[in-house]
Every structure is written in structure tokens, then in C-alpha cells.
């Protein structure tokens, strides 16, 4: 069978044998896109990945942007100085083999018995892909949620954290922390 060809996963013995070759390789995803001249030049430009499964290294125009090892959390990186404005950009994502990663880490100093596969507990990946009673082993990798280039041309509130202090039955004092994204003008206040 040729590399890159899969058959009916749930037919006969294919659930054990057919997808096994997928997990042994690194996988690359590439996408070109055009950025207009002047696009977001005076703003915060960032690239956000909502889902990378799992051992991902992201490149933009041949330069490494980030390493992300958790399929359950988004990854965001600023790209202002890396965009080619008025030209073609190339985004590439490399996904490393999870079993090869587990083998490289090794069993030394872990609670795992040597007959168990090590990679499962060591990566933030959907654990049923390692095989559960209702799901055959099928270790896949890839971009599994949205990817977007965002331009923050004005400040925005990205998060608010409220911490209670001096609480009584009738009153409370609160500390409020506000996380702001984007370029905040000098002397700006939040009210």
C-alpha cells in the first residue's frame, strides 16, 4: 500500500493495521496567503491557532514563530515584523510524531511501567486516540480548528480578573486587574 493512502478504517482488521503508519511520520501543512501593502502596519497583528494537534512547530516565511504542545489550548503569536506586506506569505506547520517523541523522552524517572506506551500521558492530546474500549488506536496530527490573522487597530480588553478582599456580610473591597491588548495611548484610562 502506498504512503498517503488509507482504507475503510472500521472494515475488518483495518482499525488496527491501516492507520498505524500515520503516527510514524512528521506531517507538514503549508498555506500561502497575500497581505496587502500597509495592512496593519500601525496596529498589533497576530496569528491565532484555535487547535493544533499536538506537537506543532509553526513557521512564517521560513522563520520559526512558536512551538505548541497542547491540542486543547489556542496558540497566539505576534507577527507584525514577520509579515510580507504587498506580497505572498507562506505559513507552515510541522507536526512531530507522538510515539517518536515518547520514545525520545524515555521511561527513566516516570511512573509508567516499561510495557506501556509512554507518549500518552506525556502529551496534551485527546487520550482516546491512543485506543480506548470504544475507539481504535488512531494517532493523527494536524490543524483541527480555525486559524486567523487578526489586526488589533485599537486597544481592547482581553481579560478581567476580580479578586475579593476584606469581605464581610454587608460589604467587600475588590481588586480588579484588566488585561489590555493592542497599543494603548499614553495617559489612557479605563473607567
Please summarize the sheet with the most strands: 4 strands, antiparallel
Tally of extended strands? 11
**Order of H and E elements:** HEEEEEEEHHEEEE
The average pLDDT value, as a whole number, equals 81
Mass-distribution shape: flat
Helical fraction equals under 10%
Rg (C-alpha, Å): 23 Å
Write structural notes for this entry.
This protein is mainly beta and about 190 residues long. It has helices at about 15, 100-105, 120, and strands spanning about 25-35, 45-50, 50-55, 55-60, 65-70, 75-80, 85-95, 140-145, 145-150, 155-165, 175-180. The strands form four sheets. The protein has a four-stranded antiparallel sheet, with no helix packed on it. Strands 6-2-9 form a three-stranded antiparallel sheet, with no helix packed on it. Strand 10 (about 155-165) and strand 11 form a beta hairpin. The protein is flat, with a radius of gyration of 23 Å. It starts with 13 loop residues before the first helix and ends in a 10-residue tail after the last strand.
